[in-house]
């Protein structure tokens, strides 16, 4: 049985036509009983162009560790750097070329191993 401070995690691979597959990680929010998915994808050049990533703002961060709460959903495309994001019992490694979506309401810990540059968009 999970303790009140841990969050069960369910991993899956979802087929996403026509772009292939994406790793889907669902963190179960025990307080609300709803899954909170973090998705990580490798985008095709066409999909990157469709999203107009080059027009999104850029965020940069030097190596550090900090807590983060998402008041809004964030999508980001990692240009540089290595990051470990921990949410409950889940740990995800994020690296250049990853397109990551963090759900609204997620609480997590960021550990930036090497300087990060990313395009980002809040919704």
TrEMBL record:
Pfam families: Cupin_3
Residues of the (S)-ureidoglycine aminohydrolase cupin domain: 52-120
Alphabetical list of CDD domains matching this protein: cupin_TM1112-like
Gene3D superfamilies, per the entry: Jelly Rolls
Domain of life: Bacteria
Source species of the chain: Thiovibrio frasassiensis
Protein name in the entry: Cupin domain-containing protein
């Amino acid at each position: 049985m999970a303790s009140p401070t841990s969050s069960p995690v369910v991993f899956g691979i979802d087929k996403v036509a026509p772009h292939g597959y994406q790793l889907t990680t669902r963190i179960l929010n025990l307080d609300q009983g709803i899954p909170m998915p973090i998705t990580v994808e490798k985008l095709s050049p066409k999909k990157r162009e469709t999203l107009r990533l080059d027009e999104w703002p850029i965020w940069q961060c030097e190596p550090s560790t900090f807590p983060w709460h998402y008041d809004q959903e964030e999508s980001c495309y990692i240009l540089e750097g290595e990051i470990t994001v921990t949410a409950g019992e889940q740990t995800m490694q994020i690296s250049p070329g990853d397109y990551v979506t963090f759900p609204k309401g997620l609480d997590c810990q960021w550990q930036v191993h090497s300087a990060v540059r990313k395009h980002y968009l809040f919704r």
